[in-house]
Write a structure and sequence with these properties.
This protein has helices at 2-18, 36-53, 61-76, 109-114, 118-133, 136-144, 146-157, 162-168, 179-195, 201-216, 220-224, 231-240, 252-263, and strands at 20-22, 29-31, 86-90, 97-100, 104-108. It is mostly helical. A 3-stranded mixed beta sheet has the order 3-5-4. It has a two-stranded antiparallel sheet with strand order 1-2.
């Protein structure tokens, strides 16, 4: 009995002490029971499933190259520039964007149709990039799956990690982020887009558009990205508290040429 009680209390403490990591974005210590190798494996395995569920890739090379080029500008100034990122446009009418761990970022046709310039696109991709760089999915898995499953995952990781991918990887599709994670993605995503040379007010425009669309009917983006209180106010306050270089890019003409025109073909 005493031995069992000691196991109940000591084992979780050992897991917690050994399973902490520094968040690459915030610099704060957080519970992390899966490694970066796990994130890469999940991203590779489930990126195809996301594409399948959301209509497949938009079959236009010029559009895809443009989306990826904007994303790569964001990735290069992120907290994990060494991670290989993949930015893909999917042929689905939902207003949505999402990310898988390991550097896989997706944006839907429905979202692209409602954006009007490159800076807005950069803001959406930057937001999703933060979810990857801050390891939000891995943190959610660590918290939601519990210590027992985490121990199982850790134990199987040493022997190949096949079961942990199968058991929890699928749950990452449509994972709902916390409001704190959403705020981080907004604020650090704003910093990413400015470092990449984009006008930060484009993110405000995108938030306004998404909230307006959500008033007409609930949009898919907010089902996995809960709207933090005072979201627009927080973004504007962050902008006003910083000094940005002049002549930041908006990119209306390029967006019209490489995205909107190709979507209408």
């Amino acid at each position: 009995m005493l031995r069992n009680m000691l196991t109940i209390f000591i084992l979780p403490a050992c897991v917690l002490s050994c399973g902490c990591a520094i968040n690459p974005v915030t610099g704060e210590k957080q519970l992390m029971l899966v490694g970066e190798d796990w994130e890469l494996q999940v991203g590779r395995q489930y990126s195809g499933e996301v594409e399948k569920q959301l209509g497949g890739r938009i079959e236009n090379r010029q559009l895809q190259n443009y989306i990826n080029s904007v994303g790569q500008k964001i990735a290069a100034v992120s907290h994990r520039p060494g991670l290989e990122f993949h930015y893909t446009a999917l042929n689905h009418e939902s207003i949505n964007a999402m990310a898988l761990p390991g550097g896989y970022v997706f944006i839907t046709r429905g979202m692209l149709e409602r954006l009007t310039n490159e800076a807005q696109l950069a803001g959406v991709l930057a937001h999703e990039t933060v979810h990857v760089t801050a390891r939000h999915s891995a943190a959610a898995v660590s918290q939601q799956m519990g210590i027992d499953l985490a121990l199982s995952v850790a134990g199987q990781k040493a022997s190949g990690g096949a079961m942990d991918i199968a058991r929890v990887g699928a749950g990452l599709i449509g994972l709902r982020y916390s409001r704190e994670q959403e705020t981080q993605a907004d604020i650090y995503g704003l910093d990413y887009m400015v470092r990449a040379g984009y006008n930060p007010y484009a993110m405000v425009e995108t938030i306004e558009m998404l909230q307006q669309q959500n008033e007409v009917r609930p949009i898919e983006f907010f089902s996995s990205h809960p709207d933090p209180a005072n979201r627009k106010v927080n973004i504007l306050e962050h902008i006003s508290s910083n000094v940005y270089p002049p002549n930041l890019t908006t990119g209306e003409s390029d967006y019209a040429e490489f995205v909107l025109a190709n979507l209408n073909d």
